Amino acid sequence: MSFPDAVFAALRAEPSKIAVEHGSREVTRAELLGLTSRIAAGMRVARVKRGSGVAMITDVTPEALAAYLAAWALGARVVGIRPGFSDKQLDHMLSDGLDLVVTDAKLPELLDTPDEPLILTSRPGDVARLVYTSGSTGLPKGCVQTYGALSAHYNWNPDNWDAATIRLAAACDRYLLFGSLASVVVQDYLALCLLHGGTAVIPEELRFPDVLSSLRITFTIMNVPRLYAMLDSLRDNPLDMSSLQGMIVAGSPLTPHRLAEAQQRLGPVVYQGYGQSETNGLTILTPEEGHQDSVGRLQGGVEIEIRDGEVWARNPWMMREYWENPAETAEVVVDGWVRTRDLGELRDGYLYLTGRTRDVVIVNGYPVYAGPIERVLAQHPDVDQAYVLGPEEVLHAFVIPLAGREPSIDELSSLVRDELGPDSVPTTITFVDEVPVAPSGKPDKKALLG
């Protein structure tokens, strides 16, 4: 079934079931369809049609969700804009051929329109969404995903679900919907919830881990820094987490000892995944699989090749190009493959990441990668997390000790020297209490340098 037909068919199939729970408010699937059709009618009045550009700058609400669905029903190019961009970056994204900017203040006007039938007009080659990169190296780049690509996506079409996806969907009875609807990870797992027949739960107050327990959440997505903070809280303040059946953890590496702690405190619920804005999801690691230093086995439909140590990937749902940026596209998309610029290796169907080609420091004339050093430092029994970066050919390590522990700098240096050689030993090792988090939810290593 083509995108977004499968979602609308699922909503129509069980009209009385609760689609969205927003505090004390409950929105049935029929009511969500009604909101969607009214907003689509309002968008038509605003001259949105197939191929129009529609930007979304909204909070997480049932109406905002309906606006995304309405724009896709009309065949529009949807540009989700999450919080955290600079004014310059916002100007770049909002000046790029848009026909409508949807805000929370705009939604009542769009809803003030008589209901009309939803008539889907998109074609497989039309652009369904622009997924903007974080912009950490400059202006964000818009990754183009077509309607055909989303029709082939492993989450958006039940015909494409493999065993792991079916199991994840089954865990989505009560999916915690938070953060930003502009996030493709939020969108893609929301799709599983709606297609499964579950309820998207929008909390009035977002406080982890309490929100998972109090709202009896069965499925959520989680970045690594938030998971670590949640586990720290649960040590001193245990909660009933028995409702939780699945949790996708992605965005940055999860250390083996923290994964073991998560399994102990939360149960066998942690799934790990790897992907990029350019590729969407590439791998999945289920709770039972023992390859804890791997980012998982390949999703169905994914192909990966290792070329000179670098991970190259392709799948039916990857980006077609960077929006109006042929030079960058030519660098990253080569003969139908995406250069991930991550380093790794494949063993027995599992992908192991060893670093990033852009996360390299030249030491004594040789390339040294931060990823392996971080992993070695994190193996020390007194270390919780480690981050390494290297401006001006000098390696700096920032280490978060385990609570109440005092790792020896000499031991840490010797550990790296023994495992990776003298060129990989950081010039400085600094102990910190926490790592700053970027708007994307990933650790902001550059901020550690002050």
UniProtKB/TrEMBL annotation:
Record domain AMP-dependent synthetase/ligase: where: 10-323
Keywords: Ligase
Annotated SUPFAM superfamilies: Acetyl-CoA synthetase-like
UniProt keyword Ligase present: yes
CDD domains reported in the protein's UniProt record: AFD_class_I (cd04433)
Residues annotated as domain AMP-binding enzyme C-terminal: 373-442
GO molecular function (one): ligase activity
PROSITE patterns for this protein: AMP_BINDING
Keyword Cell cycle in annotation: no
Alphabetized Pfam families for the sequence: AMP-binding, AMP-binding_C
Listed name of the protein: Acyl-CoA synthetase (AMP-forming)/AMP-acid ligase II
Origin species: Kibdelosporangium banguiense
